[in-house]
Write a structure and sequence with these properties.
The protein is mainly alpha-helical. The protein has one domain (4-55). 58% of the residues lie in helices and 0% in strands. It contains 2 helices and no strands. The chain has helices at residues 4-29, 43-50. The radius of gyration is 15 Å and the shape is elongated. The N and C termini lie far apart (48 Å).
Length: 59
């Protein structure tokens, strides 16, 4: 069983990692990060931020 302290620590670590990934992607692509937290975004908004046609494999 996971303690409440461990769960809170894991949540903070997850939030930190999320913020690092979003910031890195925003700097790499030049896109503005979403204003709302990721869990509040629609599928379309998530795809718009994370998808990058330049990285797609060309046939």
């Amino acid at each position: 069983m996971i303690s409440a302290v461990h769960r809170a620590c894991a949540t903070r670590e997850d939030e930190w990692l999320r913020d690092v990934l979003i910031t890195t992607w925003a700097l790499t692509t030049g896109r503005l990060p979403p204003r709302d937290p990721p869990e509040a975004l629609s599928i379309e908004e998530l795809i718009e931020f994370w998808a990058d046609d330049r990285l797609a494999v060309q046939p």
